[in-house]
Design a protein that fits this description.
The protein folds into two domains: about 80 residues; about 170 residues, no CATH class. Helix content is about 50%, strand content about 20%. It contains seven helices and eight strands; from the N terminus they run ααββββαααααββββ. β3 and β4 form a beta hairpin. The N terminus is likely disordered.
Length: about 260
């Protein structure tokens, strides 16, 4: 009987220990879970704080960098940006704003007076309806006008070469005109005695025409330089026609 009682007590104590152990384990599990939650929360907070701080720093850096760009640089960038122009219009550094939108026929869209030595003459830029000005051609024309002495010297050399092969223009003026200019070149009225260099030097550049031609027409010569002798008494022109590269095309006798 006593043994049975002892066994019963042992079982009761064991049961109590088991319950206690379970309770302890449960509490430990709760504490552990709470710690995990706290750790996770702490990590999230730290992560969020870091991200926020990083964003704030980046924002501040961007603002600082923006402020650091000098106004002059901004203005320069604005100037460097190509200007937007309406259809039919082109804005060029040398020629300025060119407008072909209202053209019905070939017409002058730009003109200016130039001087070379004692001579004064006009330069006309011609355009064709439906043919927007090509920047490449405008750049080439501008380069020629910026070095007029070289362009004039080149054209006069071509005139000398022509007269060495064909003197009919010289002969016409010696025979038809009895003026001070012609008498100075042919004092005895002999066209064959006229010095070619002297005749070419006496000729005047009266006009330059720059033509914005279509690709099909450009071979005819987009640069036309008109030369005359004794222009007060003669309307006869020798038109020196060149490509925009100064390559000769032809010399035509016009009036």
């Amino acid at each position: 009987m006593a043994k049975a009682k002892k066994k019963k007590n042992k079982r009761a104590k064991k049961a109590e220990k088991t319950v206690a152990a379970k309770r302890t384990a449960k509490k430990a599990g709760r504490k552990s879970a709470k710690r995990s939650v706290k750790k996770a929360a702490k990590k999230t907070v730290r992560k969020t704080a870091k991200k926020t701080a990083k964003k704030a720093v980046t924002k501040t850096a961007k603002k600082s960098a923006k402020k650091a760009v000098p106004k002059a640089t901004k203005k320069a960038a604005k100037k460097a940006a190509p200007k937007k122009t309406p259809a039919g219009k082109v804005d060029h550094a040398f020629f300025g704003e060119l407008d072909i939108s209202a053209l019905d026929n070939d017409d002058v869209i730009w003109e200016r007076e130039f001087s070379l030595g004692d001579a004064t003459f006009e330069v006309h830029l011609w355009a064709t309806p439906g043919e927007p000005p090509k920047m490449r051609m405008l750049d080439a024309f501008a380069a020629l006008l910026e070095d007029l002495p070289s362009l004039d010297a080149h054209a006069r050399q071509l005139l000398r070469q022509k007269f060495q092969q064909d003197r009919s223009y010289i002969e016409f003026h010696v025979e038809e005109l009895d003026t001070a200019v012609i008498r100075a070149l042919a004092p005895h009225g002999d066209a064959s005695a006229v010095d070619v260099d002297a005749f070419v030097s006496a000729m005047e550049l009266t006009e330059i025409g720059l033509w914005l031609l279509s690709d099909a027409e450009v071979a005819s010569g987009p640069v036309v330089m008109d030369y005359m002798i004794d222009k007060e008494n003669s309307d006869q022109i020798l038109a020196v026609k060149l490509m925009e590269t100064s390559q000769p095309v032809s010399i035509d006798w016009e009036s």
